[in-house]
């Protein structure tokens, strides 16, 4: 998943205003207390950030990939 795809999915699943607000304000415990914006700026993989955000917000797998999307593969480390 590229960062561009992350932002598109965020807006599709959470809505533009709410999603962008969460990205700036929601602290992600599993990513050291960073926000989405901070985590992406620090170089975290967008798919990892997306999964952490969805887990923390309680978004089920059936909804987290939006309409007609398949989950992208996990990054290789």
TrEMBL record:
InterPro entries the UniProt entry points to: DUF3046 (IPR021408)
Pfam family membership, one: DUF3046
Domain of life: Bacteria
Name of this chain's protein: DUF3046 domain-containing protein
Organism: Bifidobacterium catenulatum DSM 16992 = JCM 1194 = LMG 11043
């Amino acid at each position: 998943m590229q960062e561009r795809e992350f932002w598109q999915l965020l807006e599709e699943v959470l809505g533009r205003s709410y999603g962008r607000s969460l990205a700036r304000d929601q602290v992600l415990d599993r990513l050291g207390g960073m926000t989405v914006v901070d985590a992406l700026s620090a170089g975290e993989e967008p798919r990892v950030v997306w999964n952490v955000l969805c887990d923390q917000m309680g978004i089920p797998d059936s909804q987290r990939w939006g309409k007609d999307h398949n989950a992208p593969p996990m990054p290789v480390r």
